[in-house]
Design brief:
Blueprint lengths: L1 E2 L10 E15 L2 H13 L4 H24 L4 E13 L2 E13 L5
Parallel strand pairs: 1-3
Antiparallel strand pairs: 2-4, 3-4
């Protein structure tokens, strides 16, 4: 499956738009990681505990979007975007979305 942030795939033609596909996850803070992050905030540097958590959340949301596209029989997802939002104190949603498409036969 082709996954791309642009709305077109160079050298390929979109035959059919299957629709919006998305994947999301909501993550809450972990008190242990919060304490470590607070200490790191005092001394400076990357807050690795949060970087790790966000990477895991991004991968989970991305996998869910791909699964949704596969269920539609998509060849590709175009126009992929990521967004985050706070849903309550201490919890954030990570959402990934794009347009699932079927591609014309490749003659290259």
């Amino acid at each position: 499956m082709i996954l791309i942030t642009t709305n077109q795939i160079p050298g390929r033609e979109v035959k059919q738009i299957l629709g919006l596909v998305k994947g999301n996850t909501i993550r809450a803070k972990h008190i242990g990681k919060d304490i470590l992050a607070g200490l790191r905030n005092i001394i400076g540097g990357e807050v690795k505990e949060y970087t790790e958590a966000l990477n895991e959340a991004r991968e989970q949301a991305f996998s869910r979007m791909i699964k949704s596209a596969e269920e539609l029989g998509a060849d590709a997802v175009i126009g992929i975007r990521f967004t985050t939002s706070q849903v309550m104190a201490g919890a954030a949603e990570l959402l990934v979305y794009g347009t699932a498409v079927k591609l014309a036969s490749y003659n290259g």
